[in-house]
Design the sequence.
């Protein structure tokens, strides 16, 4: 009887400490899905992989959402603490970004479902943008609280146009693009100052350095989706910046290979997938041989990294080292 009681108590504790950062897993798997959908068009990779992943990531999103709703019902005070936490607040936007990613994933197959995800994701993300900036203004922020996850709720606005073409006017989409680009520059300056001139990021947040790749990569994709071309300086600057940050984190590999597993490892995944998609788009329009080789490398690296993160996540779940009091 006592063993059953202990098991039940353990399950309740794991629900209590189920982190909002789990939605980063949906972002990573969603990015992987879009990458394989694009790779089937550009590189001739079988579409079967992308089609299977489409259903897997959709199931993941609803499963994680259901668990988090149960947590809110049973442990609303814990959720409120996450909502008011200076770091975890940024990951609530992973919910809306996951919805925007699902809109992109389903657009070619289920347009009605895609539109539903896009309209709800856009509305929720705009609310979270306003709420997060309000939180920053009304609460005293310490420099040590800043980390690249700050990009998620604010700079994530550049993702709205990627799935929104055909659902809204270019003017409407450009509004969100403008917000994302502006705050990317502002927040990047703050974060670079923090990283260079102040204490280094704690080891559990080191994977968030990969988030530096995402804003220029997604902005490049958004610009291309809106205007159907990147034959200008601005779009090429965006792609080249994304490429630079990709090379930079690769050059810093020693900083990452010895890090203990945290759920923050999922921060590796979506930025890599975004860069892979941007490279596939670049190759589809330029037919440059070097870009083709880079496309294959990015697809391979992204797949391997996400496979490792999935393995480590499952392994640590069985070891009861996920969903614990941190």
Sequence:
């Amino acid at each position: 009887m006592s063993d059953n009681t202990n098991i039940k108590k353990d399950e309740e504790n794991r629900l209590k400490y189920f982190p909002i950062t789990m939605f980063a897993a949906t972002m990573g798997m969603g990015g992987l899905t879009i990458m394989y959908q694009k790779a089937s068009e550009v590189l001739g990779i079988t579409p079967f992989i992308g089609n299977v992943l489409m259903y897997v990531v959709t199931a993941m999103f609803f499963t994680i959402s259901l668990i988090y709703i149960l947590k809110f019902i049973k442990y609303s005070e814990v959720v409120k603490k996450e909502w008011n936490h200076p770091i975890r607040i940024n990951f609530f936007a992973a919910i809306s970004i996951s919805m925007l990613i699902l809109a992109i994933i389903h657009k070619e197959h289920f347009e009605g479902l895609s539109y539903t995800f896009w309209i709800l994701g856009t509305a929720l993300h705009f609310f979270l943008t306003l709420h997060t900036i309000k939180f920053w203004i009304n609460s005293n922020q310490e420099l040590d609280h800043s980390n690249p996850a700050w990009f998620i709720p604010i700079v994530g606005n550049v993702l709205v146009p990627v799935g929104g073409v055909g659902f809204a006017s270019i003017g409407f989409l450009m509004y969100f693009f403008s917000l994302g680009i502006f705050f990317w520059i502002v927040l990047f300056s703050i974060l670079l100052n923090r990283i260079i001139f102040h204490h280094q990021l704690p080891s559990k947040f080191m994977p968030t350095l990969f988030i530096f790749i995402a804003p220029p990569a997604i902005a490049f994709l958004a610009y291309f989706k809106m205007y159907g071309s990147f034959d200008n300086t601005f779009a090429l600057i965006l792609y080249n910046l994304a490429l630079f940050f990709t090379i930079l984190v690769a050059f810093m590999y020693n900083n990452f290979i010895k890090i203990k597993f945290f759920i923050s490892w999922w921060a590796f995944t979506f930025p890599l997938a975004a860069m892979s998609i941007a490279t596939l788009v670049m190759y589809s329009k330029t037919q440059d041989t070097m870009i083709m080789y880079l496309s294959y490398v990015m697809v391979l690296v992204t797949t391997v990294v996400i496979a490792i993160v999935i393995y480590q996540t499952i392994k640590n779940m069985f070891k009861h080292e996920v969903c614990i009091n941190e």
Notes: Residues 289-318 form the longest helix (30 residues).
